[in-house]
Every structure is written in C-alpha cells, then in structure tokens.
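Page 37, continued from 36.
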C-alpha cells in the first residue's frame, strides 16, 4: 500500500484533480446487494421488468414495488469504512477532489461526503413525469401519488436503461478533464457512459486506480489495481496517503 500511495501522490502532484467513481461494490459491505454478482439484484428482478421506461409504462406497480423495496432497505443500513475512507480522501485533496457515484443510495452523504454526483439518480427522490419537478421522497411511491405542482404522475428519480445519466453536460466532464488520478471503486465497469470515464482519463495521461474484490487483470486502463473489499482497501490507502502527506 505504501508504493501505491506514493504513486498516487506523485501522479496527483500539487494541484492535480483527483476523481472517484463508485459502484454497488462500495455499498456491499453495508448490506446492499450489487447488481451482477451471484445473487445480485438483476438476477431476481430482470432489467426489462423493473428498470426501463417501457417497464414503467407497461407495469408501473412492478417498478414502484422494486424501488419501494430498495428505498425501505436503505433505511436499515449504514455507511461502511469504505464510504468513510473516501471522506478522508476528500479532506486530503480538498477542492481538487470529485466524487461521482453510480449508486442511488445516500451512504456517501451519510458518511460525511460533500458534493456527490449521482449519475444514476437517487432513491430518496421522486420526479414528476410531466413537469420533471424533483422532490425528496422517503416513503413508498405508488400510482396514487401525484405531483404537488401539476398533479402529474410521480416516478422514482432513477436513470433507467435507455435514459441519459445526470451531470453529463457539465459536472462530470469538469471532474474528468485534466484529472491526474482516477479511482474506479466497486464497479463491474460494464454500464456506459460511466464505464468509459476511466478510459478517457487514461488516454489523457492520468493514473487510473481500480479497487475491487476482483480486479480486472490485463486491463491496460488500470495501471494500479488494489484487490480486496473496499471497506478494507480504502482505509488502508487513506492511512498511507495521510501519513505520506504529513496529515
Ligand atoms: P455491479 O453489480 O455490476 O458490480 C459490482 C462490482 O462490485 C463487481 O465488480 C464486484 O466485484 C465489486 N464488489 C463487490 N463487493 C465489493 C467490495 N466489498 N469491495 C469492492 N468491490 C466489490 O454494480 P455496478 O458496477 O455499480 O445502473 O453497476 C453499474 C450500474 O449497473 C448500476 O448503477 C445500475 C446497474 O444496472 C442502473 O440501475 C442505471
């Protein structure tokens, strides 16, 4: 870990941007299922039944039920050491640090993260299908719920397959342009455009670091691979980064 931290600090330099993207793996140790691991969410809940605009049009109750269950479960779990270690990285790199997540949970925020770019939406928000107004939503959502402004139908504020992720116009490009160190944490890297961000940073000469239970050997994008549970790898890395930066 000592060498890894040294490489990261060298690559980041004095003013280099440090960007993190997280996936379901970082929340796994909190008790939230991933999507594609064995027993993952998509196994019992096929994407075409619960996570497309067509599914919502054909059978909204099935879609509401799926996200109601996710939302209810989120209320029963807590952030883990991986989420907390990223807050330490945010403190270390300050304004140069950006956190993008594919996760729809709020565990980064509850661990103390500052601004989090939720590119696939947020479980604790709902959106009006007609006026696109977004509101906080911690309860069950159903066909009976109407928009407070225009009475339109409310849907989960989640990016479904076939829809365009959030923050792609400005904030995600700003986090990736000129990025010197890019961390890809707990993601299978198969859903685009999220999966393509590391490649862009690598092509521009940034150091890409993969943190995963099972890293992807031979992937030329990730010059540094840290294998293991994020809840163990990230605190150890934060310890080293802090110690080598004299924090
Ligand atoms: P996946 O389920 O595809 O991948 C989870 C990754 O986390 C795998 O590579 C695991 O090896 C890794 N992993 C599991 N436990 C871990 C741990 N404790 N520490 C580190 N890594 C661990 O989830 P995502 O990559 O997040 O999109 O999936 C991307 C998107 O696909 C999701 O945002 C979701 C899904 O369809 C939408 O719903 C739009």
């Amino acid at each position: 870990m000592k060498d890894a931290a040294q490489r990261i600090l060298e690559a980041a330099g004095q003013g280099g941007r440090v960007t993190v993207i997280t996936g379901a793996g970082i929340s796994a140790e909190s008790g939230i299922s991933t999507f594609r691991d064995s027993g993952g969410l998509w196994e019992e809940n096929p994407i075409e039944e619960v996570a497309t605009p067509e599914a919502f049009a054909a059978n909204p109750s099935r879609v509401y039920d799926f996200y109601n269950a996710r939302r209810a479960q989120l209320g029963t779990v807590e952030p883990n050491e991986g989420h907390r270690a990223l807050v330490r990285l945010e403190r270390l790199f300050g304004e140069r640090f950006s956190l993008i997540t594919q996760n729809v949970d709020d565990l980064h925020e509850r661990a103390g993260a500052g601004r989090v770019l939720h590119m696939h939406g947020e479980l604790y928000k709902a959106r009006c299908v007609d006026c696109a107004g977004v509101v906080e939503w911690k309860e069950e959502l159903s066909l009976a719920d109407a928009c407070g402004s225009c009475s339109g139908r409310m849907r989960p504020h989640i990016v479904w397959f076939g829809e365009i992720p959030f923050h792609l116009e400005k904030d995600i490009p700003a986090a990736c342009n000129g990025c010197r160190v890019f961390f890809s944490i707990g993601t299978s890297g198969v859903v685009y455009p999220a999966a393509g961000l590391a490649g862009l940073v690598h092509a521009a000469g940034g150091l890409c670091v993969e943190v995963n239970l099972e890293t992807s050997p031979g992937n030329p994008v990730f010059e540094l691979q840290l294998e293991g549970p994020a809840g163990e790898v990230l605190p150890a890395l934060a310890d080293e980064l802090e110690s080598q930066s004299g924090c």
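Strands lie at 17-22, 97-101, 116-118, 121-128, 134-136, 154-158, 179-185, 207-212, 224-227. Flag for discussion at group meeting. The mean pLDDT is 96.
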